[in-house]
Amino acid sequence: MKVGMLMKIIVGISGGSGSIYAISLLKALKELNIETHLVVSTMGEYVTEHETGMKLEDLKPMATHFHDNKNFAAPIASGSFKVDSMVVLPCSMKTLSSVANGFSDNLLTRACDVSIKEGRKLILVPRETPLSPIHLENMLKLSKMGVTIFPPSPGFYNHPETLEDIIVNMTGRILDMLGIDNNLVNRWEGL
Q1: Does the predicted TM-score (pTM) go above 0.90?
Q2: Hey, which residues does 13 pair with through a beta bridge?
Q3: Is 185 within a domain?
Q4: Does some domain include residue 80?
């Protein structure tokens, strides 16, 4: 694993419910001194403000770099710009479908497309229920390409007492998937 500012992670926020997870991840990555590149869809901005009261201007300082979702000239739009991984959380079904079908109509989906074509780690955190056959087919298609599909389904074996406990544990699990050591996960040690 790379350490500190040598590691670069793209964090995308799309329009699904659950941007509180993205906020938690951005805070954890900042605390770990990991360089982040944030891109937020129009609906991601809307849902984040609706669910958390945080505006786009509140999110920007949480990341090392912010990229406008309409800016196809941003560094993260190119495979020659080296990053280690990308996470989209929450990932709306629209974004997931766009990625699955190579429809790069904004910077967020273009950065996902670049992650896939460059063979980089891409984690999509879909937030939808129930899942239709279309959703499942798109997820299977992406999974077969090597994309990690990571539904934010909390476990309760660790007896979370607050919503924050659930969010922090899920953040730790995402950090695990990124190969980043952390102590946020209440790890199972057997009975």
Answers
A1: yes
A2: 40
A3: no
A4: yes
